[in-house]
């Protein structure tokens, strides 16, 4: 079973396997010891042992020891949810970092379950969930083929020509046709479009003023700007900014009490990359896609949106995914002759959430590979340790 070994952040893809020198090893777990069930807390998760859900603990204990013995790794945490139970949860020593712009710091810290984590472009997938909730609640028309000009009358002067044909679905599927470049220059550089988003007096106008490189709906082009346009539609139609809407209709429903969402300016939140959540809480959002949008008996987002947003609408121009839905990536792997499809949210520095519906499985990674080589890849850990532990005879 092989997961592609690419690193995703924004539109950047690195193929790097160079070692760093800092020592961040911790104690190993003796082989033969039973791996304990994660701590049961009053956060909504039921915890269980690996053996209760049929997972072999031996490869996972070997993985923990391998990570702890690897100098310079930037694995912050790994969580595994199987059959709606949290069965594996590990936090590691690694460098701390800053998020504006994302960069690694020199001091090593020990991550833990109560720390907020920067999720980078995983925020896009969460914004898609929020957009679906806004449709469910009747704030936004369920017709995603509606032209965005109907929602953004203040930008009619620039939504002309072929731009007038851009639809909500085009934004959701990264097929707006609008130019966007956040790879040619580093974040923080004035020529990087994410930097331009933050420095513009009108971030939405900045995005919509970009030239068209193709007919809307025909070409995938990674564009962090359009996710923020989706957030603006939520803001205008609900009269709540993105964070307020998320608090009322998502976070409170999931029992998420600790969070931060970075602002661009004023009432504009960084919908495409600024969300900070604890790993357990992000996994709750993932669980909605295994349970028809339901958490603890509450319909948080409709089953219809869960289904619709995880269909493959366009082939992305990347080599780590074969399909793209509404701000979600798709791919598949083969294991023992069986095709296993997975849904993925992915962000800068190797923030990853894999959702495997056929196995009732979620795998969460947070890492700190910001502007440095990937010395120990989450994909490698899945291939060498996690997959053998789960997909065994």
- Report the structural category: alpha+beta
The major beta sheet can be summarized as: 8 strands, mixed
SSE arrangement, N to C: EEEHEEEEEHHHHHHEEEEHEEHEEEEEH
Number of strands: 19
Shape: globular
- Number of alpha- plus pi-helical segments: 10
Query: Largest sheet, order of strands side by side?
Result: 3-5-4-19-18-17-16-15
Cα-to-Cα separation, first versus last residue:
14 Å
Give the mean pLDDT. Answer: 92
Low-confidence stretches: 5-23
Work out the helicity level. Answer: 25-40%
Taking all Cα atoms into account, the compactness measure Rg is 20 Å
- β-sheet strand percentage: 15-25%
Short characterization:
This protein is α+β, with helices and mostly antiparallel strands. It contains 10 helices and 19 strands. A hairpin with a 2-residue loop joins strand 6 and strand 7.
Question: Can you tell me about this structure?
Answer:
The protein is α+β, with helices and mostly antiparallel strands. It contains ten helices and 19 strands. The chain has helices spanning 57-68, 122-136, 168-172, 193-199, 203-208, 224-238, 242-254, 279-287, 303-309, 378-390, and strands at residues 7-9, 12-14, 46-47, 75-82, 85-91, 93-99, 102-110, 117-118, 259-261, 263-265, 268-269, 275-277, 294-295, 298-299, 323-324, 329-335, 338-347, 351-356, 361-367. Strands 3-5-4-19-18-17-16-15 form an eight-stranded mixed beta sheet. Strands 8-12-9 form a three-stranded antiparallel beta sheet. Helix 1 runs antiparallel to helix 10 (378-390) and helix 2 (122-136) packs parallel to helix 6 (224-238). The radius of gyration is 20 Å and the shape is globular. The model is unreliable at 5-23 (pLDDT under 50).
């Amino acid at each position: 079973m092989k997961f592609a070994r690419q690193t995703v952040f924004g539109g950047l893809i690195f193929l790097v396997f160079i070692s760093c020198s800092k020592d961040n090893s911790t104690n190993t777990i003796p082989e033969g010891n039973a791996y304990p069930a994660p701590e049961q807390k009053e956060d909504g998760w039921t915890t269980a042992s690996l053996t209760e859900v049929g997972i072999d603990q031996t490869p996972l204990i070997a993985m923990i020891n391998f990570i702890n013995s690897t100098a310079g790794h930037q694995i912050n945490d790994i969580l595994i949810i199987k059959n709606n139970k949290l069965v594996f949860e590990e936090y590691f020593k690694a460098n701390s970092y800053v998020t504006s712009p994302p960069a690694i710091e020199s001091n090593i810290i020990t991550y833990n379950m109560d720390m907020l984590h920067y999720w980078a472009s995983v925020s896009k997938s969460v914004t898609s969930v929020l957009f679906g909730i806004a449709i469910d609640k009747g704030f936004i028309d369920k017709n995603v083929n509606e032209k965005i000009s109907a929602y953004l009358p203040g930008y009619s002067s620039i939504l002309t020509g072929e731009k007038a044909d851009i639809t909500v679905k085009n934004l959701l599927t990264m097929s707006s046709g609008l130019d966007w470049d956040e790879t040619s220059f580093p974040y923080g550089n004035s020529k990087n479009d994410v930097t331009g988003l933050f420095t513009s007096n009108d971030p939405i106008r900045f995005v919509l003023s970009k030239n068209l490189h193709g007919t809307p709906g025909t070409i995938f082009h990674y564009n962090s700007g359009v996710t923020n346009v989706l957030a603006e539609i939520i803001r205008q139609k609900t009269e709540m900014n993105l964070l307020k809407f998320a608090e009322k209709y998502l976070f409170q429903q999931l029992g998420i009490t600790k969070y931060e969402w970075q602002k661009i300016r004023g009432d504009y939140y960084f919908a495409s990359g600024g969300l900070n959540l604890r790993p357990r809480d992000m996994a709750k959002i993932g669980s909605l896609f295994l349970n028809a949008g339901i958490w603890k008996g509450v319909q948080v987002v409709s089953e219809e949106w869960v289904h619709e947003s995880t269909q493959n609408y366009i082939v992305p121009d990347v080599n780590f995914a074969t399909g793209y839905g509404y701000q979600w990536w798709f791919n598949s792997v083969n294991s023992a002759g069986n095709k296993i499809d997975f849904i993925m949210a992915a962000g800068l520095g190797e923030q990853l959430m894999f959702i495997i519906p056929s196995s009732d499985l979620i795998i969460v990674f947070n890492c700190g590979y910001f502007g440095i080589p990937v010395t120990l890849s989450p994909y490698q850990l899945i291939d060498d340790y996690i997959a053998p532990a789960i997909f065994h005879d």
